[in-house]
Amino acid sequence: MSFSPSYIHFAAPPFPYFLECGHTVYQPGEQHPNRSRMGKFDLILVEQGCLYLGEDHKQWEVPAGHTLLLLPDRYHYSVKPCEETTSFVWIHFHTVAEWLEAEGEPVYAGRDTHFQQFLTYPYTIRVPQFGPLPGPAEPSGQAAQLLQFTRDRRSSAVWQQQRIFEEMLRMMDLAQQDASGSHAAEIAEQTEAYIRNHYTEALTNTVLAEALHFHYNYLTRCMKRVYGLTPMEYLTDYRLEQAKLLLLKTEIPIAAIADRTGFESTAYFSRRFASKVGISPLRYRKRYSR
What we know:
Layout: E1 7-12, E2 17-26, E3 35-36, E4 41-48, E5 50-55, E6 58-63, E7 66-70, E8 75-78, E9 86-94, E10 99-102, H1 111-118, E11 123-128, E12 130-132, H2 139-149, H3 154-180, H4 183-198, H5 205-212, H6 216-227, H7 231-249, H8 254-260, H9 266-277, H10 281-287
Antiparallel strand pairs: 1-10, 1-11, 2-9, 3-8, 4-7, 4-9, 5-6, 5-8, 7-12
Helix pairs in contact: 2-3, 4-6, 4-7
């Protein structure tokens, strides 16, 4: 079946967490069981042969050296039995952060919810639903390590397996960035980094354009495409994020916090804060004070 490639985008932190893994071998004529809404992600790494799997309206032939990520809220089924001896490693994992399925460029997953709950902006981990194993990552070797730790003491294995699993996700994510060569993503990240390093200053459209050597309209297109925000929207939200931290971690007066985080006045800061968070800065501080 022909369809556009999909990517699964995970907001992190918190990072997806490892649950369990195993190794399965099918002989010719055997097939993967049908499953519906398992409630966990199922990452399959085929070592030998070929699996024929479907998820809702999609179907794949997954040959050796390829991965398939089955989603927790879908119906998974066998398209047909294996035609040759087929072996694969399966990894079950989950996440408490937001995730979504999309095509093409990276997206800024879970922005508003993440801001409210974790006081920080997430990084978007981008994993292809189906594709070749990234060569430099050697995931099959990492998968072997995951399997090895299933035989160790749980107190040791749980930490080691999470570390190895996160490294696998990191290499799959980096491989997508390298393969896409996305100029928009690169420019968006440069803009984001500049804003984070200069948010206390009087940043304007002109300042950003001159500092980054691109027309502001182009910076806006890149930021909207990757993060879903204009540079100025990102700046305001990031200032509010830093203000939240100061309200929680210090006893600095509200006016001083407004000044430290780059807002032009205390009144403007209070309006923007209340609009975003739902209460005033003072009430926010009191909510978490004894």
